[in-house]
Amino acid sequence: MKKFLIVTLVLVFLLSACGTSAPADSPSGIEITAPYAHAAGMGETSAAYMNIKNTGTEADTLLKATCDAAMMVQVMETKMENDVMSMGEIPGIDLPAGGTVELKPGGYHVMLMDLMMEIKDGTTISVTLEFAKAGKVVVEVPVKAPGSMP
Predict the structure, then answer these.
(1) CA dist 61 to 4, 110, 127, 131, 135, Å?
(2) How buried is residue 110: exposed, middle or buried, by Cβ count under 10 Å (0-12/13-18/19+)?
(3) What would the pLDDT profile of 3-38 be if each residue is shown by its tens digit?
(4) What is the DSSP string of 23-91?
(5) CA-CA distances (angstroms) from residue 90 to 20, 26, 111?
(6) CATH architecture for segment(s) 25-148
(7) pTM for this predicted structure
(8) Residues 128, 120: Cα–Cα separation, whole Å
(9) Which of 14, 39, 66, 77 has the fewest other C-beta atoms within 10 Å?
(10) SS3 14
């Protein structure tokens, strides 16, 4: 019985560590969950993805992003029009009050261009998101190998 209890407690502890990363919150109502970025070498391009929830009572807009690991950072959108996929920088991403926007491959994302260092699987980079109303929110973004993406 004692052995069963110890095994159960160990399993509960291990399973609790397997959840998604804790939200990064700003006092003004922006909550970031499930951030990750692609691993890439110095001089290459990567992208950061996450869920952004506006828990506030007013709409907000993600205006730009910065990252010390990249020479250039852009908020971008990939979309399909007339059977042609295109990707380009956008002026912002609207976040309705109480709404969530998913930054994901094939949609909105933060492009990290001309990396100044290799970002390896298992490391973390800091990405600062700037919102029209909420201001700056720093997100610690885990780096994952391309095959291990959610």
Answers:
(1) 51, 14, 16, 5, 10
(2) buried
(3) 333 333 333 333 333 333 444 444 568 999 999 999
(4) PEE-TTSEEEEEEEEE-B-TT--EEEEEEEEE-SSS-EEEEEEEETTEEEEEEEEEEEETTEEEEEE-S
(5) 28, 23, 11
(6) Sandwich (2.60)
(7) 0.79
(8) 19
(9) 14
(10) helix
Q: Which long-range contacts (CB under 8 A, 24 or more apart) does 95-98 make?
A: 95/30, 95/52, 95/53, 95/54, 95/59, 95/60, 95/61, 95/62, 95/131, 96/54, 96/59, 97/54, 97/56, 97/57, 97/58, 97/59, 98/54, 98/55, 98/57
Tokens of 113: 């261009």
